[in-house]
Design a protein that fits this description.
Cofactor: Mg(2+)
Number of strands: 4
Oligomer: single chain
Shape: globular
Strand order of the largest sheet: 1-2-3-4
CATH superfamily: HAD superfamily/HAD-like
CATH topology: Rossmann fold
Family: Belongs to the HAD-like hydrolase superfamily. Cof family.
Order of helices and strands: EHHEHEE
CATH class: Alpha Beta
Strand content: 25-35%
Organism: Klebsiella variicola
Protein name: HMP-PP phosphatase
Radius of gyration: 11 Å
Number of helices: 3
GO molecular function: magnesium ion binding; phosphatase activity
Distance between the termini: 22 Å
């Protein structure tokens, strides 16, 4: 069974207005309920992503700066 699920954010997971769709958010929460670690990747700076991720109320790792930094 998978232990980690990683997702690109911009242009993939996020809608054009930088929000998660309800079905996507529900699916991510189900993954967390199954103890699967979530990881979100973006080319953006971590300060931009904390605002976005904070709205989701999800415990996740962030890969930012085009892969140059990993944050818990």
């Amino acid at each position: 069974m998978a232990k980690l699920a990683a997702f690109d954010m911009d242009g993939t997971l996020l809608m054009p207005d930088h929000r998660l769709g309800e079905q996507t958010l529900t699916a991510l929460k189900r993954l967390r309920e199954r103890n699967i670690t979530l990881t979100f990747a973006t080319g953006r700076h971590v300060l931009e992503m904390h605002h976005v991720i904070g709205e989701f109320s999800l415990d996740a790792f962030l890969i930012t700066g085009n892969g140059t930094r990993i944050h818990s």
